[in-house]
């Protein structure tokens, strides 16, 4: 079976594949369907890039200037893994005319190292420290797509969405905290067409695994008491920005169906257990559901997770920590930037289960209130530069008020959103009128554009009900 994460099968003519992919890319940009030979992972990424209006022929934006970058990456967990990256990929990058890059979960490049000539060439497209290379800003590329899909991937030449990047080939793998499953960033190697081989993908995957193991064994990784005081859980559930949760237990990872994801999440939040009636209410609300329906779901779940599920009352037999718990722990500890970096998106975004909707709303509201309370440029920007924050007028107006001299982007975005919402500037609103609580839904003139799912695993709705101002 062909590995869908590899760019080319052995024996494929790179020149012919470049031409056929370029034609498919032109057809897609002209409004046509994605055609052969585009891989599914690339087709999904092109759609996400187009939906986000990623640049088609421009350089990636610079998100962090030199002082901000230096302070940020010095305190980043991946700084401790740089010796591993340099040992395993550094010499290969230098000797093989490649560049080694490491980015954070938002796709911001923290380190770009390697062959000096190749680095100078890469600088022309802003493949430099501090630049933003997630799909929303730079289009399809290996580190950005690895973060979006949460999987190691190769991107070959004209598979890149941005035409300026189509002379490059790259392979990247995401990096996680092995104790919590939290996404830390990605490691990438970028160079010429010869990187489109199984060896480069295997190399970055092995490097990522080695770095994760190094971080897990590094005692100073728990740099504050909140990590040291709490032992690692025996199981972990990934639910942020996922419709189908990932359950990691006993060294294996299971992808749960949507209903099973909801059940495990609710039981993880109620370690004391839930009666059948209470669990049914959290799952189905006031709908008239026969008891046998829930029992059948739990029976199917037990076949998947085995002895992890117990009954009378329904409960999990081990502690299960979620990535949402990690975000809440960071918030409680007062580490808002860490909480925002860990918040990959809404909790089980498509779930309509009342208990899940409540958890999702509570976490998002708590994060958003903290951002507006702190009102620092860093945390406001972290929220604004997300699919759920890009239409949040209150956030953009706060960012406008805290912008540095010469930074006109927040003001222009706030002006555009005010026009879309048909609202005056804050100075023109009646005195003592609360700021409008315009949440993360698209403005009326921009609604109807749902961000497409990548492969059924990662998605979030961007069209929500507009919350009117509090009277």
Automatic annotation (TrEMBL):
Compositional bias segments (type: Basic and acidic residues): 444-454
Record-linked Pfam families: GAF
Region (Disordered): 421-471
Signal peptide from the UniProt entry: none
Highest taxon listed in the record's lineage: Bacteria
Domain (GAF): residue spans on this chain: 118-214
Gene3D superfamilies: 3.30.450.40
InterPro entries: GAF, GAF-like_dom_sf
Entry protein name: Transcriptional regulator
Species lineage: Bacteria, Bacillati, Actinomycetota, Actinomycetes, Kitasatosporales
